[in-house]
Specification:
The protein is an alpha+beta fold and about 290 residues long. It folds into two domains: about 1-70; about 75-290, Fumarylacetoacetase-like, C-terminal domain (Fumarylacetoacetate hydrolase, domain 2), CATH 3.90.850.10. It contains seven helices and 19 strands. It has helices at about 30-40, 45-50, 85-95, 105-110, 170-175, 180-185, 235-245, and strands spanning about 1-10, 10-15, 25, 55-60, 65-70, 75-80, 115-120, 125, 130-135, 140-145, 145-150, 160-165, 170, 190-200, 210-215, 220-225, 250-255, 275-280, 280-290.
């Protein structure tokens, strides 16, 4: 069961896509209102929706024809790094490109008790389905990072799962780890969507399959797949560190790291189309433009 947010006739609505593909308009103004209404009734959000299905308006327009928006206007998006072995390998390759090292800080982060967590985006910087994401003008090695996103409450409770694109400048980060904010945060450097999979409908969140495809002039340039089962750290572990002595807002999104890295010779160009698909959630599509 997936929650979407869409625009129709200059108005914004919430909707739900059922397991059979049918879609209905929800009365709630946003995702958090749905969650609050379910909590007030002492039921899970999916149970609330199922019990109300007979009075909901069925959408006649196919979901793929709707103007989808970010499924939640996240007040903040945070991200975890080096949570997969493949990510550690890629980060080490970035460091090696600036000179030989015996052991890198990324090896230390991967094995450390404390995970790497950094601020990624604000609501104003975050893009939704079919919106443009940007590449920096001062970087020559840029890639998307396809990630599972956790939609969490202020108490750290995982409310749902979405797709995130943590755009990254590999050359800037590889040159100096203290440049991480500039390697990760700039205008429209993050995208989430197209839906939120309700957490109470997911039997095992470590069985999601993530696939990333990048097209240039409608030609597939690179493709990769991975499973969240390859994640080294648990979701509750990442969330617990994010909450340590920190103020978190309802609807915050925490990206959980990437296990898909394009070949080292590849860099994004203006006009590229990025497609990130996660089983049971959908496909997030964004076109690339200069910042």
């Amino acid at each position: 069961m997936r929650i979407i947010r869409y625009q129709q006739d200059d108005k914004v609505y919430m909707g739900v896509i059922m397991e059979d593909g049918s879609a209905y308009q929800l009365p709630d103004p946003d995702f958090l209102s749905l969650v609050a209404r379910a909590e007030a009734g002492g039921v899970q959000p999916s149970e609330l929706i199922k019990s109300s299905l007979s009075v909901l308006t069925k959408l006649e327009q196919p979901v793929q024809d709707l103007k989808l928006l970010v499924p939640i206007v996240a007040p903040e998006v945070w991200a975890a790094g080096v949570t997969y072995e493949r990510s550690r390998e890629a980060r080490n390759a970035e460091v090696q490109s600036t000179g030989p090292v015996s052991i890198s800080y990324y090896d230390k982060v991967y094995e450390a008790e404390r995970p790497e967590i950094f601020f990624k985006s604000s609501a104003a910087r975050t893009r939704g389905p079919n919106e443009h994401v940007c590449i920096r003008n001062d970087s020559s090695w840029q890639v998307p990072e396809p990630e599972l996103g956790l939609v969490i409450g202020a108490n750290g409770h995982i409310l749902g799962y979405t797709i995130g694109n943590d755009m990254s400048c590999r050359d800037i980060e590889g040159e100096n780890p203290l440049y991480l904010p500039q390697a990760k945060v700039w205008r429209n450097s993050c995208a989430i969507g197209p839906a939120i999979r309700l957490a109470d409908t997911v039997e095992d969140p470590y069985r999601f399959t993530i696939t990333c495809r990048i097209y240039r002039d409608d030609k597939l340039m690179t493709e990769g797949s991975a499973s969240t089962g390859q994640l080294k750290r648990r979701y509750d572990e990442l969330v617990s560190y994010l909450l340590r002595d920190n103020l978190i807002f309802d609807g915050t999104v925490l990206l959980t790291g990437t296990c898909i890295v394009p070949p080292d010779h590849f860099t994004l160009q203006a006009g590229d189309r990025i497609e990130i698909e996660i089983s049971g959630i959908g496909t997030l599509v964004n076109e690339v433009i200069p910042a």
